[in-house]
């Protein structure tokens, strides 16, 4: 799937400058990006499976969980 790989490369290119501002070096920035992406993917799967309920309230709750988790990851 070359299109998927290309989209991933483009997204990484957009997010790495942000991660570099939060991490001490290039490897740390990439690790931060991987952790954040992994959490985002997991929360999206849980939301889709209905683990957080259904409807707009579930989406808002998931957004809050994502924000709290991202803040915790960047502090660590």
Task: Explain how this protein is built.
It is flat and about 40 Å long. The protein is 84% helix and 0% strand.
Structure characteristics:
single chain, 76 residues, mainly alpha, 0% strand, flat
Compact overview of the structure:
By secondary structure, the protein is mostly helical. The protein has helices spanning 2-22, 26-48, 56-75.
Q: What is the share of helical residues?
A: over 70%
Structural class: mainly alpha
Would you list the SSEs in sequence order as H and E? HHH
Q: Biggest sheet, open or closed, and with what strands and sense?
A: none
Number of strands: 0
Low confidence ranges:
none
Shape: flat
Radius of gyration, in angstroms, nearest whole number:
14 Å
Q: How many angstroms separate the termini?
A: 34 Å
Mean pLDDT: 91
Counted by DSSP, the helix tally is: 3
SSE layout and pairings?
Elements: H1 2-22, H2 26-48, H3 56-75
């Amino acid at each position: 799937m070359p299109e998927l790989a290309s989209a991933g490369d483009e997204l990484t290119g957009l997010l790495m400058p942000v991660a570099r501002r939060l991490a001490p070096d290039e490897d740390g920035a990439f690790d931060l990006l991987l952790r954040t992406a992994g959490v985002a993917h997991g929360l999206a799967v849980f939301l889709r499976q209905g683990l957080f309920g259904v409807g707009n309230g579930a989406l808002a709750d998931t957004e809050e969980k994502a924000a709290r988790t991202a803040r915790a990851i960047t502090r660590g």
